[in-house]
Amino acid sequence: MTVLSKTLGFALAVAAATAAFAAAASLAVGARSLSAGNAPVTSCGIATLSATRTVDNSGTVTKVTVAGIPVACNGETLSLTLVDSNGAVLASVSAPISGTTAAFSALGSVSAPSLAGYRFAVMGA
Amino acid sequence: MTRLLVLLAIGLSAATATAGFAATLSVSSWHLWAGRQTLTKSVTPCTVTGAAADTFVDQASPTSPNSGGATIDALADSGSQRWAFLRFDLSTCSIPPTGGADSATLRLYMTKAPARTFTLTLARVLGAWSTTLTWNGAQSLSYAAATATAPSGTTAGWVTFTVTGDVDQFIHGLTTNNGWAVTASGSTQNANKDLIQFASSSAAANKPQLVVDYEK
Fold first, then answer.
1. CB–CB of B36 and A120 under 8 A?
2. Residue A59 at interface with chain B, using a CB cutoff of 8 Å
3. Could you give the ipTM of this predicted complex?
4. Which CATH number fits domain A50-123: 1.20.58, 3.10.450, 2.60.40, 3.40.50?
5. Which class for A53: exposed (0-12), middle (13-18), buried (19 or more C-beta within 10 A)?
6. Using the beta-carbon criterion (under 8 Å), do A15 and B34 form an inter-chain contact?
7. In angstroms, what separates the C-alpha of A107 from chain B's closest C-alpha?
8. pLDDT per residue over A92-118, tens digit each?
């Protein structure tokens, strides 16, 4: 009986300790914990990005180069969307960032006259 | 019984611990930055009338320059070929290097048409030249692959070449603007019948034009 009591006591202690740890961990992912915003989320320091494009002789965009990427963004993902004057998507590409510029050349057949703007998104951890 | 309780305890611990780590993994700190850039297009095209430099070279007079006349010539006949050269100054359009050409057209007014249609070929010149260029000098220049071709037709009038890609490269500074050479090819008869002449920048009217739609 003594052995049984000791064993049971040990088991309950371990279970209680683990349960407490688990409960604490569970609290960290609860909706209220996330909304508290205790974990700081920082960007890689982008102020603005700008793009230039080249065209072939038929006026089709052959390459878009995005400039102004901070070095701190290396390894993150840059998404580039080409839009027309109505905001309709003409092409959309993305790639990991390596360097302070990023060049995209697989853009389909976007005509330069129809290109009215760029949308950028940089996502990272 | 003792073994049962020990196993129960370990199982409970493992189960809760697993749940705890799984929950921790779902917590991350991804961030997203988003921005946009709106392009400004030319309201009206920039038209450059008159080349900054134009001339032609003549195989029959290989050491003589031919600039300053009212025409620049193209001739396909072997032994007496003529090639026309033009270079435009794009600075009057004030297009920043961050902009680019949406479309660009080179227009030449043919004042003398050939008796038969010839193919006119426009190629970017890869080296510097001046209006004192001669046939011999033109042989030492390099030329890019043909940018555009156009049929001459057999009546006087405007001949157009699409030069969007070349002008875009000039704007971006990706290649030096040394202008273009225009040559003729086709079935020849004789120099008189085959001669093609365009109004030069020295002509009173119908000077060469470069028309550029662009983004700033």
1. yes
2. yes
3. 0.78
4. 2.60.40
5. buried
6. no
7. 16
8. 999 999 999 999 998 999 999 999 999
